[in-house]
Design goal:
401 residues, binds flavin-adenine dinucleotide
């Protein structure tokens, strides 16, 4: 009986990125008894990340710049990252046997380039005497006399401490609500869009690179983002669209009331392009415009505007010139719908003013903690969402050292 009291009896609900990570860190201390609940294998949510390569984090040293990549959670994470940032993450991954490298675009990947290998290595650290995995779904959470009772599909368990790491899953938000927490409205983020301009779907596989997009949000100034856009047979997608979907996560739009996105495909000015056309008057128009955008895109713009694709620059009418130049500088897309189930993360979650950013402990219930995506935190693509998981998990683990 006396011996029991020296152990910290901790439950972790969910063994995805943050729940799995906090379990590893907690299990290192022989005085912690860690029981994790998940019907899935630990870290299996990492398998599809980074296109199967697992984009662990992003190589930006300045924390103030790093947190700008989170439309929700920026201030909270400033405190979190001041204790455990991407450098400390990379170091800890190294200690766990996972070396990393930085790609040209600053995204950080394991040197194995394999999410599967990464998961395999992480899972090895869970094979300790003080870690138990229960392949059970948690159905409810109750607190009585400073003890937590977890009810699963298989039984009841009592713990002194509970960490909820259930990501964007509905059941985790229900557990938090049972414990008196409030949830910021949940919305899909990092998702693809249906657009009104269906002719662009015919450009399946075409990517427009380094495009500048401007969107006007309700009651807000214009927001500008840059990145690549990819056309598929039924949507627009790619890093720029993901960014737009993230900053506009709370915007309502549909077929009738679309969200307008203005694209600038080149950094050249109207005058630059006009000059180019003038000084190449004997050239085919398409050949001039191929310098500014992919061939298929230019041909499609010419086709839908009934401009002969073999026209010489000298024959271009004023109106046609305007159409072509504006398709490079101010192409309008009208987002009609977010594509169902295309989201990578959930915006919204446990309200951050109910959580202590220095400990991840609930301000409502002592001994209850939250890590990862269940919090009202979400970032752009690039490794930011996993960094939230690693850092909040690490900070949570410090309570049990
Ligand atoms: C296709 C895809 C690619 C991505 N690529 C990247 C990337 O490269 N880089 C990046 O930074 N982010 C990426 N993300 C986002 C990132 O994977 C998530 O933000 C991250 O996994 C969230 O971690 P988490 O621990 O909060 O939740 P999760 O990893 O989602 O884990 C939650 C776990 O809780 C379990 N669970 C839920 N409810 C219960 C319950 N009631 N009882 C028991 N268990 C429960 C689930 O089974 C799950 O295993 C990607 C996401 C997707 C979908």
């Amino acid at each position: 009986m006396e011996q029991e009291s020296i152990y910290k009896n901790i439950a972790v609900i969910g063994t995805g990125a943050s729940g799995g990570f906090v379990s590893i860190l907690l299990s290192k201390n022989p005085y912690n008894k860690v029981t994790a609940f998940d019907t899935r294998e630990p870290f299996s949510t990492l398998l599809p990340t980074g296109g199967g390569r697992c984009n662990i984090t992003y190589d930006e040293d300045n924390i103030k710049d790093f947190v700008k990549n989170y439309p929700r959670g920026e201030k909270f994470l400033l405190s979190v990252f001041s204790k455990f940032d991407k450098n400390k993450t990379i170091q800890l991954f190294k200690e766990l046997g996972i070396n990393t490298y930085v790609q040209n675009d600053k995204r950080v990947f394991p040197t194995s380039n394999s999410a599967q290998e990464t998961v395999k290595r992480l899972k090895k650290h869970l094979i300790t005497q003080n870690f138990t995995l229960k392949k059970e779904k948690v159905l409810s959470l109750k607190k009585k006399n400073n003890k937590y009772t977890i009810t699963t599909d298989k039984g009841n368990y009592i713990f002194d401490y509970v960490i909820i790491s259930t990501g964007g899953n509905k059941s985790g938000y229900n557990l938090a609500q049972e414990m008196g927490h409030s949830i910021s409205p949940l919305r899909p983020s990092l998702c693809s869009f249906n657009i009104r301009e269906k002719y662009l779907y015919e450009l399946t596989g075409v990517t427009l690179k380094d495009v500048k997009a401007t969107i006007k949000l309700k009651n807000k100034k214009n927001i500008t983002c840059t990145g690549d856009i990819l056309f598929t047979h039924k949507s627009v997608t790619g890093p720029l669209i993901f960014k737009i979907s993230s900053v506009s996560a709370y915007e309502d739009f549909d077929e009738k009331k679309t969200m307008e996105i203005s694209l600038s495909i080149t950094e050249c000015t109207y005058e630059d392009i006009e000059k180019d056309i003038k000084s190449n008057s004997k050239k085919a128009v398409k050949n001039i415009f191929y310098n500014y955008a992919p061939k298929n895109f230019i041909l499609k713009i010419m086709q839908i505007n009934n401009i002969n694709k073999d026209k010489q620059a000298a024959q271009l009418t004023k109106k046609e010139k305007e159409i072509l130049i504006n398709s490079l500088l101010n192409l309008k897309l009208h987002a009609e719908k977010r594509i169902k189930d295309s989201e990578i993360v959930t915006a919204g979650g446990i309200k951050l003013d109910e959580i202590n950013s220095k400990t991840m402990e609930s301000k409502i219930n002592k001994g209850l903690y939250f890590t990862g995506e269940i919090l009202d935190i979400d970032g752009f693509t690039g490794g930011f969402n996993l960094q939230n998981c690693w850092s909040t998990a690490y900070i949570c683990s410090l309570n049990f050292n």
